[in-house]
Amino acid sequence: MAGKRNERLRELFLHEISAALRGVNGLNAHGLLTLTGTELTRDGKILYVFYSVLGTPEDRRRKELLLNANLRDIRTLLFRRLRLKVIPEIVFKFDETPEKASHLEDIFKRIRSEHEKSDEDPRP
User: Fold this and answer.
1) Which domains does the chain have, with CATH numbers?
2) How far apart are CA 66 and CA 17, in angstroms?
3) CB-count burial class (<10 Å; 0-12, 13-18, 19+) for 67
4) What is the pLDDT of residues 62-115, one digit of tens each?
5) Is the torsion defined by CA of 33, 39, 40, 46 positive or negative?
6) Triad 93, 38, 11: Cα angle to 5°
7) pTM surpassing 0.70?
């Protein structure tokens, strides 16, 4: 039972935090921010919100600063909008999965191109 409730809460928090971030000025000015998921601790006291940034490392640092600067406002908004006894502390964590996937895709492309070159150049 608790697992299903936890999953519903994670989805609800992700939706509400995403909506709250739409009002933050300059959030997508340089680089694109994407919320990739959430993780709620068993006791429901800490919510990890994972995000990725399409842009430069400087864009990533800007987004991190903006997210952390707006934590209190986001949590206050959650208190107002949701009728829950406990609103968890929010911790934003950078999600490296898209970067790792892109890196792996580049490696696969190189392997494919090397394989195609070796097929085109049959040696006697």
Assistant:
1) 2-95 (3.30.300.20)
2) 14
3) buried
4) 999 999 999 999 999 999 999 888 899 999 999 887 666 676 777 878 888 877
5) negative
6) 155
7) yes
